[in-house]
Amino acid sequence: MILVQLFGEFFKAGLFAIGGGLATLPFLQEIGQSTGWFTQQDLMDLIAISESTPGAIGVNAATYAGFHTYGCIGGIVATLGLIAPSIIIIILVSKVLETFKESRLVQDIFYGLRPASTGLIAAAGFSVVLATLIHVTDLPNDPAEAFNWFGIVLAAGIYAAIKKWNKHPVVYIAASAVIGIAAGYLHMFG
Amino acid sequence: MKKLWNMFLTFARIGGLTFGGGYAMLPMLQREVVGKNHWATEEELADYYAIGQCTPGIIAVNTATFVGYRQAGIIGGIFATLGVVFPSIVIITVIAACLTNFADLKVVQYAFEGIRVCVCVLIFNAVQKLWKKSVVDQPTTVIFLLVFLVSAGLAVGQSFYPDLFSVSPIVYVVVAGAAGVVLHGGQGKKEVGK
Question: Does A96 touch chain B if contact means CB atoms closer than 8 Å?
Fold first, then answer.
């Protein structure tokens, strides 16, 4: 039964997630919240792993989330759910390729969809940032303790590095892992 | 059958050797699909890729289905698509299985403490890039702000009031698509987000 639900949830994500890369993130977040299959923290790990392994990010994320929920079979079912709408839609569109490409209606729809998709990813990212860098839910007495100062400094450093060198994400993820391990043993996390 | 198998293998190679999907996949597609197998011309591939971006779903998956379907019908589309996701399923399953076993180790926890910070920055960076392509004028700015403020507002609200209602991302997508038609309909063809 959970496999049917898994397929259904990822089918919806595949049908409504527009654009590449992190477009599935808001949908994954919603699945996690409504089903309790994975937490916000699992979601962060999932993004890191999806970005640092070969293959499309959305597909990797679906496999990981599915595995997390129901093992090997779960990973396969979630991935098939995610790609099923693509297969159906592309085969339909393929028949009317020229009409679709020139269609004003399609262009108008996507004119509205693109900023909405960006807004959804930004909002999902915002709540992820809050959870990681600021402890919103259990505010301590001293407001300064509410911030993960080490994380904020590290984030600023990574951002500067991305702007300067523009390397593949896996480079920054690996570097952050090393810094995280060093900081952990030096008790630097706030 | 040989062609279908070849198609599966070719797309498995594309899926297994490109990091990051989407745009990273295009050069690999050009080499394998146009150069080696002649399944499409350069222009056709560009078309498939463009349509892959403006149809729902993962861009790499959409492009694979397109090429496979054009070459060998529905079954070709399915083989190509399964090929492109096959490496992901194998690699991610192995990693996820390992992580489950090692999640209790201090060193793994510390590593992920650092990695999560990095993921925040990567998301921010991705949003910045998407912003440049999708928020192009006043109406798109309004759509972005409305979606962002409502969605982020509800998420923050929920961390204080767990019973607060939530809105599925599907609702935003459908409403925004309709808004696009209303706001942009009849303005002629503009080169939006190409």
Answer: no
